[in-house]
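Hello Y.,

Per our agreement to keep a running log of every chain we model this quarter, I'm adding this entry. I've kept the format consistent with earlier entries: sequence first, then predicted structure.
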Amino acid sequence: MRAVVVNSFGGPEAVEVVETEVPRPGAGQVRIKVAAASVNPVDAGVRAGVFGGAGERIGLGWDVAGTVDAVGAVGAVDAAGAWSVGDEVVALHYGAVKPLGTHAEYVVVDADAVAPAPTSVDAVHAATLPLNALTAAQALDRLELTPGRSSLLVTGAAGAVGGYAVRLAAHRGIAVTGLAREGDEAFVRSLGARHVTSGEVADRDFDAVLDAAVLGEPALAWVRDGGRYVGVIPHAEPASVRGVATGAVEVSADGTRLAELVRLLDEGVLAARVAETYALEDAAKAHARLAEGGVRGRLVLVP
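Predicted structure for the entry above:
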């Protein structure tokens, strides 16, 4: 099968498409025939060596939508028995340094990372959901917001993670302000933000900040004394000041939670955004486009 890998770190030119053996699922795992897989900033970080792994062949890709192709041995308490060959699914394949990712024709994932595919969108759109929506949902969990009482600022509110965070928080009854570029104001409001700003933010005005734009200390200044700050890059959050609890979400694969997000997508609460699609052979072109910036929605590879 074909798979997208990096054998040495660098820019988009480091991305290669190679022939490799089709992986076999082990106990508690399923194999998915990939229909679509999105390209995320984390893939660019892996390609550039941010997460280590020098000297190894590293497979790219975290998000996948496709069809269950094989099921590994089923134990008494594992989730593999929930899936059958032919099931249409989505999943998050967690891990920065792994021999094969989802940017391939087939991928093996843990069965408990899998959820039924959305019925309201195609596989290309479904592939944009797992990583970004799970990151947003798990970041909001860490902020422990109270519906009807808490105020939240989301930076990067028009981005993939930020957009999901705005929508999920608004759906929960949280008063959300979005920080985004001027041209994105109407879009962020459509997600449910009560207020949108492109730069002017009152200091210490919010109960919590979800820093999807990775602004760091400037965003920390917008949290009230004793409030909460959560970033999206583990171990990169600013140090606590004024009693503000600081942390960062490290997304985890969670098929049960992903199924909830799929339900919200099918109900129209969430929306999946696709910027462009690329053939698997053109993965390097997708990385080059991502590097240019200004992408609204996700770039998606189609084997």
